[in-house]
Design goal:
heterodimer, A: alpha/beta, B: alpha/beta, Rossmann fold, 2 domains, 5-stranded mixed beta sheet, 14 strands, 16% strand
């Protein structure tokens, strides 16, 4: 059941004015929507755009307690906070807010350890498919064919399936969400916030600066990623996958919009050949097939 | 230091390895979270603590993290979450957590961490000071213990010093691997009541709190970094005052340690040579005094038990009284000399101390250094 929009509007503002986010920043939409759904959050942020947009010390635009920590230390630092607060008898929601670089690549060991220990942490990964903070370099989340500053002729490899890796840890809750569907994101964040143990939500968060897309169409790109089947929406609980209402119909490839409608709006896919586009489509269908087995 | 002898009257004296002394001190200090990762020769610390928790003797969360990097990450989180926090490591473990050792140091997170000194790569598990010396500039207070009793004493003092609101920074207690960590010796253990009187419960100076949000470690420009670095320098200056105070308080209560950050063994007013060494090399040097005396050499041992803050004033005051000096380092700053020698030379020059200066490097990778070796080195410069 999705929450009412009024509830979302009535929540306290967690990201204040004066932040350094670019025009059309997907991360800031994701952060405002997801973090505002939580009760008494304490947020751990590793190196990523979120560690930059908060403004310059002593100014802070995050209206929640925030621990900035090294790139590969988010889930470990959150483990410490979560344990300390339980010891102190304080009820809080300990959150990791990491980009895809910190989640797919350098921070795998720290979250894998925390997930295996089933630490009481809600881990969000806002995914723009590359290292946006350092100037658009390739990450494990970069889709095949996308140009980045370290893959100028397009990435040669498939994008890593982080949710399936997370699912292999048998954590209590995994979900995907897109900033194109903020109610769905808010609802999932709220649901996860009320659960215990290691919970993971992957958020599709467009980055107009790095994707070379129009900042005005960020929410539209968030929708298109779902509608073209690029970014499936689902939840995994007790090993069972359920496609979300918003994304359910895209299980059927015929119901999806052509992938080109998503790719054509982003400069990063401009140099892709038709062969590369076909390979990317195969990658995406492979991921769908793997997810369907988990249903 | 008072001689500790186990008698029927003093049942609190036990045979403990250095690692068991660390674990015992940790338990007495009542930390609430201990994230740690095993590494030789530190392993017995984490095993002993895990056993104490499993038997219900120690009420604490032991977090079995997947690496030292995560051990220090979790320690930073727990400390800023508002509880007393402890961890322990060695050698490569210290290097692997290095990024976060700096994070804790320069953002001032009052974690207490014994480092069981071990040589760095290639594979060699035996002691030298290369690991902790590599981190002497990381914003941590550093102690070096000479025996298992001092390991326990310094660990208890470390909590009180780290958490003092005028200091509020992490402390490393360095103990030589195997020579202390795996060797049993008599250690007098204070009672829980005594330690509770000495060490009050953790009072956070800054804590992550939803009712009072702030950002820790956020993006900072040069002006902000300057302020933070100056504050850290001030913190170390405060530590110069607080450390002797806490040591003295400990002495008053338990009869061990003194208010000095250095220990002098021998008659400094009648010596014709001083030996400066830290950790167990300092205690070994003490043993050489008798041999030297028989050879007609009046020597004295000056042993800094604190290396950060560097006890300049105390060292210079002592070294003004002797004509000759031998510094023994158990680590090297490659391309220069032993770290201790370099730092002492700088102070001697700055304070215009007229002294004949000698330095040697010994004991790397666990090479045995006996009191006879030390006596013979002193003999060479006489």
């Amino acid at each position: 059941m999705s929450v009412k929009i009024k509830e979302m509007l009535d929540r306290p503002e967690v990201l204040l004015r004066g932040n350094f986010a670019c025009a059309g920043c997907g991360l800031s939409i994701a952060y405002r929507t997801a973090i505002s759904a939580l009760e008494r959050p304490i947020v751990v942020i590793p190196a990523c755009c979120a560690s930059v947009i908060q403004s310059l010390h002593p100014h802070v635009t995050y209206n929640v307690p925030t621990l900035n920590i090294a790139f590969a230390a988010h889930a470990s630092a959150a483990s410490g906070i979560s344990r300390a607060k339980k010891r102190r008898g304080e009820k809080v929601t300990t959150v990791v807010w990491s980009g895809d670089g910190g989640t797919y690549d350098i921070g795998v060991a720290t979250w894998s350890g925390a997930a295996e220990r089933n630490e009481d942490i809600l881990h969000f990964c806002y995914d723009n498919g590359f290292y946006s903070n350092t100037g658009a370099q390739r990450s494990g989340a970069t889709p095949r064919g996308a140009s980045t500053t370290t893959t100028p002729t397009g990435k040669q490899e498939k994008r890593k399936s982080i949710t399936r890796i997370m699912a292999a840890h048998d954590v209590p809750y995994i979900a995907t969400a897109s900033i194109g569907y903020p109610r769905d994101l808010y609802t999932k964040a709220k649901k996860a916030g009320n659960m215990e143990g290691y919970r993971f939500i992957l958020i599709d968060a467009p980055c107009p600066t790095g994707w070379n897309s129009d900042p005005a169409i960020t929410p539209e790109l968030g929708k298109l990623s779902v509608q073209t089947g690029y970014f499936p929406l689902y939840e995994v609980e007790n090993g069972k996958l359920t496609f979300s209402k918003r994304g359910m119909k895209y299980r059927d490839p015929d119901k999806r919009l052509p992938l080109e409608e998503y790719l054509d709006r982003q400069g990063r896919f401009k140099k892709m050949t038709l062969v590369q586009i076909e390979e990317l489509k195969k990658d995406l269908q492979f991921e769908w097939d793997m997810l369907l087995r988990m249903e | 230091m008072r001689k500790v002898v186990q008698t029927m009257k003093n049942p609190n004296v036990q045979l403990l390895t250095g690692n068991a002394a660390v674990a015992t001190a940790a338990k007495l200090a009542r930390p609430k979270v201990i994230p740690a990762y095993p590494i030789t020769p530190q392993t017995l610390i984490v095993e002993t603590i895990s056993g104490m928790i499993a038997r219900g003797e120690f009420d604490c969360d032991f977090v079995n993290v997947e690496s030292e990097h995560s051990a220090m990450g979790a320690a930073i989180g727990a400390s800023l979450g508002g509880v007393r926090t402890f961890t322990a490591t060695s050698a490569h473990g210290l290097l692997y957590m290095g990024e976060l050792v700096w994070w804790a140091g320069v953002t001032r997170v009052p974690i207490v961490m014994p480092v069981v000194n071990r040589s760095l790569n290639p594979w060699n598990i035996w002691p030298d000071h290369q690991d902790s010396m590599t981190f002497r500039d990381a914003g941590w207070i550093q102690f070096y213990a000479k025996n298992n009793q001092e390991v326990l004493d310094l660990t208890l003092c470390a909590f009180k010093i780290a958490e003092h609101h005028k200091v509020w920074m992490p402390v490393m207690i360095c103990l030589d691997g195997f020579i202390l960590s795996h060797t049993s010796a008599q250690v007098e253990i204070p009672t829980q009541e005594e330690v509770d009187e000495f060490l009050p419960p953790f009072k956070p100076l800054a804590m992550l709190d939803p009712d009072d949000p702030f950002a820790h470690g956020s993006l900072t420009d040069s002006k902000g970094i300057w302020e933070q670095r100056m504050s850290l320098i001030d913190g170390f200056n405060n530590a110069r005052v607080i450390i002797p105070k806490v040591f003295h308080e400990y002495y008053e209560k338990f009869g061990r340690l003194s208010k000095e950050m250095i220990e002098i063994v021998g008659d400094i007013n009648d010596a014709n040579v001083a030996i400066v060494a830290i950790g167990t090399l300092g205690e070994e040097a003490e043993q050489s005094l008798e041999v030297l005396n028989k050879r007609g050499i009046k020597a004295v041992v000056i042993r800094p038990r604190v290396i950060r803050p560097f006890p300049k004033k105390e060292l210079i005051a002592a070294l003004r009284k002797v004509p000759k000096l031998l510094v023994i380092d158990r680590a090297v700053s490659f391309g220069n000399a032993g770290q201790l020698a370099i730092e002492i030379q700088a102070e001697l020059y700055a304070n215009k101390v007229d002294i004949e200066f000698h330095q040697i490097i010994r004991g790397l990778g666990g090479m045995d250094v006996t009191y006879m070796d030390i006596a013979s080195e002193v003999g060479k410069i006489m």
